[in-house]
């Protein structure tokens, strides 16, 4: 079973979509699982190709936003002590 299949079986992608700052987004950690890569590699690829994305494609969470997401989403508890703040991306087309 691939990581993508495990994600779908474990509750589906829909359960990974969050509403932050008025946008439906997925955190970089969840997108990395979907694309079977590391969060670091995903973020590096986005930074290398930033010209291909709209200006508001990603943003960095504040510590307060991260704490709220970690509190409300059990699957993100590993982010609680992460020194790096997550970067959400839109989960749907604009």
Question: How would you characterize the overall build of this protein?
Answer:
With 94 residues, the protein is α+β, with helices and mostly antiparallel strands. It has one domain (3-90). The protein has 4 helices and 3 strands. The chain has helices at residues 3-9, 28-34, 39-48, 63-72, and strands at 18-20, 23-27, 88-90. It is globular. It starts with a helix and ends with a strand.
**In terms of per-residue confidence, which ranges show pLDDT below 50 for 5 or more consecutive residues?**
none
Helix and strand succession? HEEHHHE
Instruction: Tell me the domain tally.
Output: 1
Helix content: 25-40%
Adjacency order of strands in the biggest sheet: 1-2-3
Question: What average pLDDT do the residues reach?
Answer: 77
Give me the Rg, rounded. Answer: 13 Å
Characterize the main sheet: 3 strands, antiparallel
Shape: globular
Q: Quickly count the helices.
A: 4
How much strand content do the residues show?
5-15%
Alpha carbon gap, first and last residue? 32 Å
Number of strands: 3
Q: By helix and strand content, what is the structural category?
A: alpha+beta
């Amino acid at each position: 079973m691939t990581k993508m299949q495990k994600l779908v079986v474990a509750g589906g992608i829909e359960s990974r979509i969050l509403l932050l700052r008025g946008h439906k987004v997925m955190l970089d950690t969840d997108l990395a699982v979907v694309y079977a890569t590391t969060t670091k590699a995903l973020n590096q690829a986005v930074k290398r190709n930033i010209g291909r994305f709209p200006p508001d494609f990603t943003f960095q969470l504040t510590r307060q936003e991260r704490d709220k997401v970690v509190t409300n989403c059990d699957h993100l508890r590993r982010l609680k002590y992460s020194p790096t703040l997550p970067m959400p991306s839109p989960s749907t087309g604009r």
